[in-house]
Write the structure tokens for this entry.
Amino acid sequence: MRGPSWFLAFAAGLLSAPASAELEYSSYLVDVGESDGIVLHGNLTGSEVDNLVVFADGGETRDRRMALFAFDGSGWDLAYASDVPDDVIFVDMVESSDRDRLLMFRRDHLDWLDPDGWVRTTLVSAPSVYNVPPLDVPQVEIVRDVTGDTLADLVLADFDGYWVWLQDETPNTDWIGPVKLKATPTSIAGFRSVSYRPRAIYELDHDGDGRNDLAFWEDEQFLVYRANDTSFDTTPVALDLPIEFSSDDVTISIGVGNPDESDPERVTLYDVGDYNGDGVGDLVTITLTITGFLDQSTRYAFYFGERVDGGTRFAKTPATVIESDGIQGPFETGDFNNDGRKDLGMASIDIGIGKIIAALLTGSVRFDIEFYVMGDNAYPEEPNVTKPIRFRFSLRSGSVLSGRWLDTGDLTGDGLTDLWVPVDGGIEVYAGTGDEELFRDRPATIPVDFPATTMPGGVTVADLNDDGRDDIVMRFPPTEEDDANRIGVVLSR
């Protein structure tokens, strides 16, 4: 499933009265010095808890750096630090049958950093669209399970498609492939340069054989590469679409101006996946309608698929829709209540002159997080759960000054999605209920002593110690100019 990353975390307001129960978690604050870049996690050194790998972005005045922190039972200590080699273009982390591996991509080669001597060893080789090392150290997510067998595979974008390697579960981890799936990236021409956006990858079981097939939207066609006994067919089949759309580049924009000067209605492909839990892929579109200055609405339409003549056919009309005034974007998508169907968490804001004036006067903005539960092949007209969010920002710089971040994860270990919100002195966890109410009204509290403001996009939810409960990693900026960057970890025990 794919969704915009800019709604991953939001500042949250007060939700409800606290409860006395506490979850069994410990919190740690890690000083990471000048490391202000991305944070990856993985078990690189054979410990019982994942290592944290933190990167420092480079620039004209300093080198790109990386630091690895290992858990010793009482906290994370620095275990390894070095410069990031000049030829590294991006990094990622892969979980394989024998070990986790920190991946470092240089031109035409994907290496992994071997902790035995901290040397780079080539894993696979192939050309790609990534050819120039940037000033920072970005993560490009080339690791994904494309077959649905729970093993992480490798998917690398090239100028004419994707290279795909499948992981074979052997003691030393073999990689099958590559196979090339044709899908030309989109290009944007700039002044003396051209940038490329690899095509989005969609997953569905097109022919009902129980295996994931991969699909791309290109040149107004939806092309499906079917899975076979060893990998994927390299000749695609075309899948008919019930509606025309202009792009699959999901970008939510604020409509400004006279609607007569441009197309007042923009239809974009959002996703293809099994939303109603019947084993057949469904098509989801976003329609952004602009009717005047800062006057717009958002509509998500769900075209359910059915199996016809050994293939997938989408319904000609949507079976259910989610509509909202203003801007509405996905905050989280998943099976929140464990019924086999996809539920949606939407971040919604109604843009208007009054809202803008109020924001400028008060220095604060309000969002609503709205949760929709898939019922009997339909989402409700109104959200099942709504949580208000407000945060303050600097009128001078635009940066967030205060607020509380909201996210989801299974912190109770019961397989249901929980809602969690940092508050003063702790994290409130609203446990999942497994029904259309989604979350309990009263939270349990995890006591923590963390700074009030996290870095943008600086929250990761993952099970660091493989005990079936999610843990939380947060990045905090310095409170003073010469202070160190810090990472907060909330670890189950």
